[in-house]
Write a structure and sequence with these properties.
The structure is a homodimer of 159-residue chains.
Chain A (H helix, E strand, L loop, with lengths): L21 E5 L5 E3 L2 H7 L3 E5 L5 E5 H13 L5 H12 L2 E3 L6 E3 L2 H6 L5 E7 L2 E5 L1 H11 L2 H9 L4
Antiparallel strand pairs in A: 1-7, 2-6, 3-4, 3-5, 4-8, 7-8
Chain B binds a DNA duplex (30 and 30 nucleotides) through loops.
DNA sequence: ACACTTTTTGCCACTTTTACCCACAATTAC
DNA sequence: GTAATTGTGGGTAAAAGTGGCAAAAAGTGT
């Protein structure tokens, strides 16, 4: 929050990594997907692709991935849920590189996880990026449009 | 948001963070919209465009947006509601820049959200700015003119 | 080990989109 | 009335996204 009466200098102390917006890109037969140019710089330090929680994929910056793996390591191995979570994240994860055109290669098994075929929706979700099949994303949007449930949830945020 | 009970020093003649009035501007084929000159200075530190609650768009200052995104980031990713909420806000948001003429580019998917075509109504609503399609705004105005229902609804507010 | 096929990877070129700039008209201020 | 500001349109150069080609790598079978 900003100090009252204080004006932020024009030299923008820009917001740390924030992925915003949604983009529909094609996925070629080789499984290559162009990542929106606006997202690339933030990922240039290294990018990790893993299975998401909702029939989608998550593309993480190196620091985000490290933060997650750190937390997972601290959790008790004796807890079955912990072991499942580790399998979900690590077994399905892969470090990805960009080619000159800003594309990443999505491994076959990850494409299957998210039912990706010829097109994909790339969604900025703050700290991370999600990759959806158009159909699954559409279903997700429809669910979110359910105004009734939304107003309940929104109230938590006091917007 | 302002600290409760804190009064801005009198040195500042005009009120800050106060967007007032309504303007009807054109939206060209490229999706560019001129923001009223009176609103620009306040947004010069960075502006964010997001989906509104009533079939419209909201244009926020950087600090307003930071307040929202800060709350979202603190929530647990493993909670499904958190993930939904983030998608609702972040996926439907976009950081926007001004060109030399004081225009912003409204991404295609956000134009669709608010049914924006060749014209838009830009409304100052105190802390934030709303962008409406002329039709939706007209309907909104009609509803507010319904004095009967208003007197009921607002009577509880002790203004 | 060698030739041959298949897959992967990097590169280039085309098309579309976006950003940037300038000019004009209309409005507002002086 | 004149000058400055504001809103609008368009043109141009740069960047982004896409598809395809070719070199490199990895497998495959004899």
């Amino acid at each position: 929050m900003q100090t009252p009466g204080f004006r932020r200098p024009a030299v923008n102390a820009k917001l740390e990594h924030m992925f915003l917006g949604q983009y529909r890109h094609t996925l070629d037969e080789k499984g290559r997907l162009t990542i929106p140019a606006r997202f690339r710089e933030e990922l240039s330090g290294g990018a990790y692709l893993t299975q998401g929680f909702d029939h989608n994929l998550r593309l993480l910056t190196e620091s985000s991935f490290e933060a997650i793996s750190g937390k997972l390591s601290q959790m008790k191995t004796t807890d079955p849920t912990t072991r499942d979570l580790r399998r979900l994240i690590f077994a399905a994860a892969s470090q990805v590189d960009f080619d000159q055109a800003g594309r990443i290669l999505i491994p076959q098994f990850l494409r299957e996880v998210a039912s990706l075929e010829s097109d994909a929706v790339i969604v900025g979700v703050g700290e991370t990026i999600e990759i959806w099949s158009p159909g699954a994303w559409e279903a997700q949007v429809m669910r979110l449009r359910d105004v009734e449930s939304n107003s309940e949830r929104f109230s938590e945020l006091e917007l």
